[in-house]
Amino acid sequence: MSNLNLTKEEINRLRSFFFKLIPVSEDLSKEFYSGLFEKYPEVRPYFKPDMQSQQDKLVDTLATLLDTLDRTDEAVHILKSLGQRHISYGATPEIYDYVEVAFLELVSQYASAEEQKDLLDLWARMMRFVSLTMLQGAQP
User: Fold this and answer.
1) Nearest by Cα to 77 from 13, 134, 8, 19
2) How far is CA 80 from the centre of its chain?
3) How far apart, in Å, are the Cα atoms of 17 and each of 13, 14, 117, 124?
4) E strand or H helix at 51, and its extent?
5) Which CATH number fits domain 8-137: 3.40.50.300, 1.10.490.10, 1.20.1260.10, 3.40.640.10?
6) Which of 38, 93, 117, 121 gives a 20 to 30 Å CA spacing to 7?
7) Do the beta carbons of residue 60 and residue 39 sit within 8 Å?
8) Spatial distance between the Cα atoms of 136 and 96, rounded to a whole number of angstroms
9) What does the pLDDT look like over 62-92, one tens digit per residue?
10) Single pTM value for the model
Protein backbone atom coordinates (compact mmCIF):
# COMPACT_ATOMS: atom_id res chain seq x y z
CA MET A 1 0.00 0.00 0.00
CA SER A 2 1.19 3.51 -0.73
CA ASN A 3 2.13 5.60 2.26
CA LEU A 4 1.49 9.31 2.62
CA ASN A 5 4.27 10.15 5.08
CA LEU A 6 3.17 13.73 5.71
CA THR A 7 3.04 15.32 9.14
CA LYS A 8 0.06 17.34 10.33
CA GLU A 9 2.12 20.49 9.83
CA GLU A 10 2.94 19.50 6.25
CA ILE A 11 -0.70 18.71 5.53
CA ASN A 12 -1.66 22.11 6.91
CA ARG A 13 0.89 23.81 4.61
CA LEU A 14 -0.65 22.03 1.62
CA ARG A 15 -4.12 23.10 2.71
CA SER A 16 -3.04 26.71 3.31
CA PHE A 17 -1.51 26.93 -0.14
CA PHE A 18 -4.65 25.47 -1.73
CA PHE A 19 -6.91 27.85 0.21
CA LYS A 20 -4.91 30.79 -1.14
CA LEU A 21 -5.65 29.53 -4.65
CA ILE A 22 -9.41 29.09 -4.26
CA PRO A 23 -10.18 32.57 -5.68
CA VAL A 24 -8.30 31.62 -8.86
CA SER A 25 -9.25 27.94 -8.91
CA GLU A 26 -11.03 28.20 -12.26
CA ASP A 27 -7.94 29.71 -13.87
CA LEU A 28 -5.75 27.19 -12.08
CA SER A 29 -7.67 24.20 -13.42
CA LYS A 30 -7.67 25.64 -16.96
CA GLU A 31 -3.92 26.24 -16.74
CA PHE A 32 -3.35 22.73 -15.42
CA TYR A 33 -5.10 21.05 -18.35
CA SER A 34 -3.62 23.48 -20.85
CA GLY A 35 -0.13 22.66 -19.55
CA LEU A 36 -0.86 18.94 -19.50
CA PHE A 37 -2.09 18.92 -23.10
CA GLU A 38 0.72 21.15 -24.30
CA LYS A 39 3.43 19.00 -22.74
CA TYR A 40 1.71 15.65 -23.42
CA PRO A 41 -0.65 16.10 -26.41
CA GLU A 42 -1.18 12.35 -26.60
CA VAL A 43 -3.40 12.49 -23.49
CA ARG A 44 -5.88 15.00 -24.98
CA PRO A 45 -8.05 12.27 -26.61
CA TYR A 46 -8.74 10.81 -23.14
CA PHE A 47 -10.77 13.91 -22.25
CA LYS A 48 -14.06 15.29 -23.53
CA PRO A 49 -13.92 18.34 -25.81
CA ASP A 50 -15.72 20.50 -23.24
CA MET A 51 -13.36 20.61 -20.28
CA GLN A 52 -15.49 22.67 -17.85
CA SER A 53 -16.83 19.63 -15.99
CA GLN A 54 -13.35 18.11 -15.79
CA GLN A 55 -11.88 21.37 -14.50
CA ASP A 56 -14.55 21.54 -11.79
CA LYS A 57 -13.88 17.92 -10.83
CA LEU A 58 -10.16 18.65 -10.45
CA VAL A 59 -10.76 21.43 -7.95
CA ASP A 60 -13.44 19.46 -6.08
CA THR A 61 -11.25 16.36 -5.89
CA LEU A 62 -8.28 18.36 -4.61
CA ALA A 63 -10.45 19.98 -1.95
CA THR A 64 -11.84 16.61 -0.85
CA LEU A 65 -8.41 15.01 -0.81
CA LEU A 66 -6.85 17.82 1.19
CA ASP A 67 -9.74 17.58 3.65
CA THR A 68 -9.08 13.86 4.20
CA LEU A 69 -5.28 13.70 4.23
CA ASP A 70 -5.17 13.42 8.01
CA ARG A 71 -7.61 10.50 7.78
CA THR A 72 -5.47 8.31 5.55
CA ASP A 73 -7.93 5.40 5.41
CA GLU A 74 -10.62 7.71 4.07
CA ALA A 75 -8.23 9.29 1.55
CA VAL A 76 -7.10 5.84 0.38
CA HIS A 77 -10.70 4.72 -0.09
CA ILE A 78 -11.53 7.82 -2.16
CA LEU A 79 -8.40 7.50 -4.29
CA LYS A 80 -8.82 3.77 -4.93
CA SER A 81 -12.41 4.37 -6.04
CA LEU A 82 -11.20 7.15 -8.30
CA GLY A 83 -8.53 4.85 -9.73
CA GLN A 84 -11.16 2.20 -10.39
CA ARG A 85 -13.27 4.72 -12.33
CA HIS A 86 -10.25 5.84 -14.34
CA ILE A 87 -9.87 2.35 -15.82
CA SER A 88 -12.87 3.06 -18.06
CA TYR A 89 -11.23 6.32 -19.18
CA GLY A 90 -8.16 4.41 -20.36
CA ALA A 91 -5.77 5.90 -17.79
CA THR A 92 -2.33 4.30 -17.87
CA PRO A 93 0.54 4.53 -15.38
CA GLU A 94 2.30 6.93 -17.76
CA ILE A 95 -0.65 9.30 -17.69
CA TYR A 96 -0.45 9.42 -13.90
CA ASP A 97 3.21 10.41 -14.25
CA TYR A 98 2.30 13.12 -16.76
CA VAL A 99 -0.34 14.49 -14.41
CA GLU A 100 2.19 14.67 -11.57
CA VAL A 101 4.67 16.60 -13.71
CA ALA A 102 2.02 19.02 -15.00
CA PHE A 103 0.65 19.58 -11.52
CA LEU A 104 4.06 20.34 -10.04
CA GLU A 105 4.75 22.80 -12.85
CA LEU A 106 1.48 24.52 -11.97
CA VAL A 107 2.39 24.68 -8.27
CA SER A 108 5.74 26.23 -9.17
CA GLN A 109 3.90 28.97 -11.07
CA TYR A 110 1.70 29.86 -8.11
CA ALA A 111 4.18 29.41 -5.25
CA SER A 112 6.33 32.32 -4.22
CA ALA A 113 10.10 31.96 -4.49
CA GLU A 114 10.32 31.31 -0.73
CA GLU A 115 7.59 28.66 -0.87
CA GLN A 116 8.71 26.82 -3.97
CA LYS A 117 11.22 24.30 -2.69
CA ASP A 118 9.21 23.26 0.36
CA LEU A 119 5.86 23.27 -1.40
CA LEU A 120 7.11 21.43 -4.46
CA ASP A 121 8.47 18.68 -2.24
CA LEU A 122 5.20 18.42 -0.29
CA TRP A 123 3.03 18.43 -3.42
CA ALA A 124 5.32 15.93 -5.12
CA ARG A 125 4.99 13.57 -2.16
CA MET A 126 1.23 14.02 -2.06
CA MET A 127 0.84 13.56 -5.82
CA ARG A 128 2.96 10.39 -5.74
CA PHE A 129 0.66 9.09 -2.98
CA VAL A 130 -2.36 9.99 -5.11
CA SER A 131 -0.97 8.26 -8.21
CA LEU A 132 0.16 5.11 -6.44
CA THR A 133 -3.09 4.77 -4.53
CA MET A 134 -5.24 5.35 -7.63
CA LEU A 135 -3.17 2.78 -9.50
CA GLN A 136 -3.80 0.31 -6.68
CA GLY A 137 -7.52 0.96 -7.11
CA ALA A 138 -7.16 0.22 -10.82
CA GLN A 139 -5.75 -3.26 -10.16
CA PRO A 140 -8.12 -6.19 -10.82
Assistant:
1) 134
2) 14
3) 6, 5, 13, 14
4) none
5) 1.10.490.10
6) 93
7) no
8) 12
9) 999 999 999 999 999 999 999 999 998 889 9
10) 0.91
